[in-house]
Design a protein that fits this description.
WH_DNA-bd_sf, single chain, 48% helix, alpha+beta, two-stranded antiparallel ribbon, 3-stranded antiparallel beta sheet, Arc Repressor Mutant, subunit A, globular, 13% strand
């Protein structure tokens, strides 16, 4: 099959995927659909062609490597316009309690619900349940403590949603703490 034909099929796979799609998933789909044995270099060639195609100013989207896979995302130039749409869809937004819970899980994972509640100081059953329903967090096994409580971690959908390749890209406290929040004199 010609490379241009493979490229269009890979483009369709990426477009139809709700979250980022890995090279291995692309190969699996291609090999099953066409009963041929495609190799990674063919996929990477196509990915390069797709990336080059969408780098043109004619397109509002681009191909991005994200969370060990590829996904079409809107270019940064259009983020403000999209932000306006997102503001109107606020019903789907997370509550303040859910955001707090998600932040705790992201920074302290894997973590039990009891540990989350100790940090927040309130019951977190509802927030944890909502985050599980939205698939932003996942169950990551059980702790080796008495009662073997469930451990929670962020999911790959969390990584896609926040545009992260790995958890090291989460903002660090020193990056978001404002200087005016310090106590005492600032002596240099």
């Amino acid at each position: 099959m010609p490379q241009s034909h493979i490229t269009r099929h890979i483009e369709a796979l990426i477009f139809s995927s709700v979250q980022s799609i890995s090279v291995q998933e692309i190969l699996l789909a291609l090999n099953a659909a066409f009963e041929e044995e495609y190799i990674e270099t063919q996929v990477f060639e196509s990915l390069d062609l797709i990336k080059e195609k969408y780098s043109s100013d004619d397109f509002a989207i681009e191909l991005v490597y994200l969370n060990k896979g590829y996904q079409f995302l809107t270019k940064k130039d259009y983020h403000e316009t999209i932000n306006q749409l997102q503001l109107h869809r606020s019903k789907k937004k997370l509550s303040q309690a859910a955001m707090e819970t998600l932040a705790i899980i992201a920074y302290r994972q894997p973590i039990t619900k009891l540990e989350i509640e100790q940090i927040r100081g309130v019951n977190s059953d509802y927030s944890v349940q909502r985050l599980l329903e939205k698939e932003l967090i996942s169950i990551d096994g059980k702790a080796e403590t008495p009662g073997r409580p469930i451990l929670y971690s962020t999911s790959s959908i969390f990584m896609d949603y926040f545009g992260l390749n790995n958890l090291n890209q989460l903002p660090q406290l020193k990056d978001i703490a404002k200087e005016e929040n310090t106590v005492g004199e600032n002596i240099e």
